[in-house]
Amino acid sequence: MNLRRAVFPVAGYGTRFLPASKAIPKELLPIVDKPAVQYVVEEAVAAGVETAIFVTAEGKSAIEDHFDRNLRLETFLAERGKRDLLDVVRQVGAMVQVVAVRQKEALGLGHAVLQAAPVLGDEPFAVLLGDDIIIGQPPAIGRLAELALETGAPVIAVMEVSPAEISHYGCIAGEEVSAGVWRVRDLVEKPDPAHAPSNLAIIGRYVLTPAVLQALAATPPDRGGEIQLTEGLRRTLATGPVYACTFPGKRFDAGNKADFLRATVEIALDHPELGAGFRRMLEDLFVKAEKT
Ligand code: G1P
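# 1-O-phosphono-alpha-D-glucopyranose complex -> structure
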């Protein structure tokens, strides 16, 4: 499917990363040599997305700037003959058309997606959450887009997690209709592990349709005052099918400090220029640690 628009909810305070995220949006914290959000935008672009809609907030406009041109910097680099860096900077600025909409109150993920409705038009669109970083080719969101084209229905990414972990995620119940594809029968946000309907956790990749926006617009806030995307999808079940599928690539949970570090180490180890040296450095560290 030609998935042209993708929504990136980036309005949160990033409290789990304080104090690093006090003045810098947590989405711009680097993983090796790129800001975290760039990995996620690159995944969408690799699946054919042309327009990135950032649902953002006060103090976070540096995210839009990152994907804009920076003519002063380009001139500086050009004048000094730094061709390679100039190419890198230009490439990020040319990657995607940028739209920013504001989420003026922190009322949840469903509310964030709704803020993008005026610029979404009548087509299916992607939603990608920056806390989930998925590295791989083909792009994970492209797999969801394929299934959305086949079925004409919204599609969400899922992954098996341990029963103890399911309470951190949205969870689906459904029947597996082909390998790694489920027709969803129910969804529940962050269930108590004792009552979770499955161990299939929703990972932050969605291909949604205008029907989901309509359902979200009618979704009341939960007990915490948030409009949940999971609840909007549950309500969409009343109007038509919803599918879930597994996805290609390696997924990192970059939503907390420890897993962010793991993402940094693993991505660094795979880095074409830095990987080999970094591996030797880690090996040295371990050898030294063993000796002491
Ligand atoms: C959000 C969704 C949840 C999903 C998760 C994936 O939760 O509400 O359904 O499983 O993203 O990362 P959050 O992690 O923002 O609390």
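# post-check
The first strand starts at residue 5 and ends at 9.
The chain has two domains: 5-153+202-255, 256-292.
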